[in-house]
Amino acid sequence: MKPADLTRSEEDHLKAIHVLSGTRSKASTNAISERLSTKASSVTDMLRKLAEKGLVKHRPYHGVKLTSKGEVVALHLVRKHRLWETFLVERLGFGWAEVHEIAEQLEHITSEKLVDRLDAYLGHPLFDPHGDPIPDSKGRVQERPTSPLADCRSGEQVRLALVDESNDALLILLNDKGLRLGSVITVEAVHAFDGSMDLRVRSGGHITLSAQVLSHLHVEPAPK
Amino acid sequence: MKPADLTRSEEDHLKAIHVLSGTRSKASTNAISERLSTKASSVTDMLRKLAEKGLVKHRPYHGVKLTSKGEVVALHLVRKHRLWETFLVERLGFGWAEVHEIAEQLEHITSEKLVDRLDAYLGHPLFDPHGDPIPDSKGRVQERPTSPLADCRSGEQVRLALVDESNDALLILLNDKGLRLGSVITVEAVHAFDGSMDLRVRSGGHITLSAQVLSHLHVEPAPK
DNA sequence: TCCCATTTTTAGACCAAACTAAATTTGACC
DNA sequence: GGTCAAATTTAGTTTGGTCTAAAAATGGGA
């Protein structure tokens, strides 16, 4: 039983639901429509269609979640998206900020063989350029214990592991400050007033990040 | 004045017209519809739309040809298609026969920067895996003097330079016979009865090709 | 418990891109 | 030059995906 042939729009909706239901396990019509820049009524239509295909469970007025069949499709899309992002950054020299939009197109290319070859060509990477895990061909993801940078205390030394937003402006800001995935950071001060932090970046300088930026950064223990 | 945003269907039509009008400079409605597996009436509709956008010149009942603006778009699509084919074969290890269909999808990805980076990554190749020239970013193509293998005489030694068809079965046949681009071939016999040829492939064996196969092969003088 | 703002769905319309069937044009042949 | 088959266009329909506007459901606060 193949993932069947889905239209681009159907795929976009499945992926949106997957991402949005990450924490709460259900996604709302409005949240989906906002993410896809469409109207709520269009989303409702699509949900009915996807429900008929057995890809989502839609309880009207109460949100939607993926069936296991839908989850498989969504994870496969995420896999393709993150593999292509990795290719663009590592092989073609793109910066993080630029690749999201292109990968949005590339993730819809349908060829199992292409995905698997690309995966092998890149050396079966476990994480994409933003630190997000890349599902393997069976949909399994490598988990990694990360914690919010915002929770760190003064004096802690950690490594930047994950940026949980593909917002261009955020990525450009990090770039400007000399921060990249794997950067080793020492917390120099935490300001209670606004939640901002002063940091020292090894092989970089002293920087300050606002709480708004910090909320998207996750770290892991610094290497020895 | 950008190539403007075109739908996938519009792009497909432009490329079909480009390819079909290669020899005669005009393409017929039926030929286009056959190539795209649609009906003639659908093509007529599309031609009107493309004509309104100034991309084609359509004289009803008398065929269609690209305007210079349409030609630019078509050449850009050809460029993308052939660069992706090259990537798939040279980097991902695909065989010639498999890449056409995937490249048909990849050629519609819109990102100038992506195309140019891919081109550089591949070392600015002049020819794709089938021997077809790859237009550069300005649409210029590298010409190469090739002649039909079918015109060769007994005893001639030549090199396979171009296969002018992306038909799967043809490419698989060539593969089975041990022929690839660049193969050095000696003509051993030409059979007047059916136009078939007996050939010897250097670093291969003795093979026989039908006139039907030969008609798609083009050669250049053998290297010294 | 009732009310009302917010969210979501329904109803009806539009557009692009395809189709079928019918009408029209062309051009080759007698 | 007239005729007819093939090629092409026109007319009208369908499907998928979106929209706007109106109706319905939900759930928190008085």
Quickly list its features.
globular; alpha+beta; DNA-binding; 224 residues; 8 helices; homodimer; 6-stranded antiparallel β-sheet
Short description:
The first copy, chain A, has 224 residues and is an alpha+beta fold. Chain A has helices spanning 8-24, 29-36, 40-52, 68-90, 96-106, 112-121, 168-176, 211-214, and strands at residues 56-58, 64-66, 147-148, 157-163, 184-190, 197-201, 206-209, 217-221.
Could you characterize the architecture of this molecule?
By secondary structure, chain A is α+β, with helices and mostly antiparallel strands. Chain A is 42% helix and 16% strand. The first copy, chain A, is built from 8 helices and 8 strands, in the order H-H-H-E-E-H-H-H-E-E-H-E-E-E-H-E. A 6-stranded antiparallel sheet of chain A has the order 3-8-4-5-6-7. A two-stranded antiparallel ribbon of chain A has the order 1-2. In chain A, strand 1 and strand 2 form a beta hairpin. Chain A is globular, with a radius of gyration of 19 Å. The mean pLDDT of chain A is 93. Chain A binds a DNA duplex (30 and 30 nucleotides) through helix 3.
